[in-house]
TrEMBL record:
Family designation: Belongs to the NSE1 family.
Residue stretches making up the RING-type domain: 188-229
Subunit structure, as described in the record: Component of the Smc5-Smc6 complex.
Keywords on record: Chromosome, DNA damage, DNA recombination, DNA repair, Metal-binding, Nucleus, Telomere, Transferase, Ubl conjugation pathway, Zinc, Zinc-finger
Purpose: RING-type zinc finger-containing E3 ubiquitin ligase that assembles with melanoma antigen protein (MAGE) to catalyze the direct transfer of ubiquitin from E2 ubiquitin-conjugating enzyme to a specific substrate. Involved in maintenance of genome integrity, DNA damage response and DNA repair.
GO biological process: double-strand break repair via homologous recombination
Protein known as: Non-structural maintenance of chromosomes element 1 homolog
Ubl conjugation listed as a keyword: no
Originating organism: Cardinalis cardinalis
Length: 237
């Protein structure tokens, strides 16, 4: 395999280090970083070869059960990159960073978000869970602080008191969510990534990310489901 034979240069190593320290990197930043690493290391750079560059890194990460994965922001459809540990697919990979009670609050928040209609959970609903935790009850003030940390660490995103899963969380936890929420978790019919915030076809039940809906129906006079061809009854964004 040519990719396995491709040398891991200092440019690759530098790129990987920055990605790991960032937690998650937006696509345009990753492209800039790719250029910077190649130019600093004086190795061949081509603006359209980022995926090949990442494939080379991934071939060397494979024996370590790690991988750089690409994901799409559910908010605006932009690409993001994160380093994923494939050996630990559970939420327990967060266990080294958070206490048991914090993890329980995270799991319960995740339940609310994934089981909701629109992929969001209100701060009121989350804070109401704080005094029902099995590990031990958590005061609301304390729970607010913990939620703040989850947002800072890019596991959750917050907008006007509504919480959803951050793109980093979706990239890292995709397999965990798909296997633990089999009845409700769905992949986007367009980009085939896990869809938390999505619109769903009332006829056949497929889901699509809002940016994917926007792109797919652009220029169509009458929006119809890509799978069953029935009229798409949701308000297209």
């Amino acid at each position: 395999n040519n990719l396995m034979a491709a040398q891991m240069t200092n440019a690759h190593r530098r790129f990987l280090q920055v990605l790991m320290s960032n937690g998650i990197t937006e696509g345009s930043e990753a492209r800039k970083l790719h250029q910077h690493c190649c130019e600093t290391d004086k190795v061949y750079y081509a603006h359209d070869k980022l995926d090949d560059f990442i494939s080379t890194i991934n071939s060397h990460l494979q024996p370590l059960f790690m991988q750089i994965r690409k994901g799409i922001s559910e908010d605006d459809g932009r690409a993001h990159y994160a380093v994923v540990n494939l050996a630990e697919t559970e939420v327990t990979k967060m266990a080294s960073d958070y206490t048991e009670i914090e993890l329980e609050l995270f799991r319960k928040t995740m339940d609310l978000i994934i089981l909701s209609e629109n992929g969001f959970a209100s701060s009121t609903d989350i804070l109401n869970l704080a005094d029902q935790l099995k590990t031990k009850k958590m005061k609301k003030k304390e729970a607010e602080q913990v939620l703040k940390v989850f947002v800072e660490d890019k596991w959750l995103s917050e907008k006007n008191g509504e919480y959803t899963l951050h793109t980093r969380c979706i990239i890292e936890m995709e397999q965990y969510i798909l296997s633990n929420y089999q009845d409700v978790a769905r992949k986007c019919n367009i980009c085939h990534s896990l869809a938390i915030q999505s619109q769903v076809c009332e006829s056949c039940g497929i889901g699509m990310h809002l940016p994917c809906v926007r792109k797919y129906f652009r220029g169509q006079t009458e929006p119809r489901c890509p799978k069953c061809n029935e009229f798409w009854s949701c308000d297209t964004p």
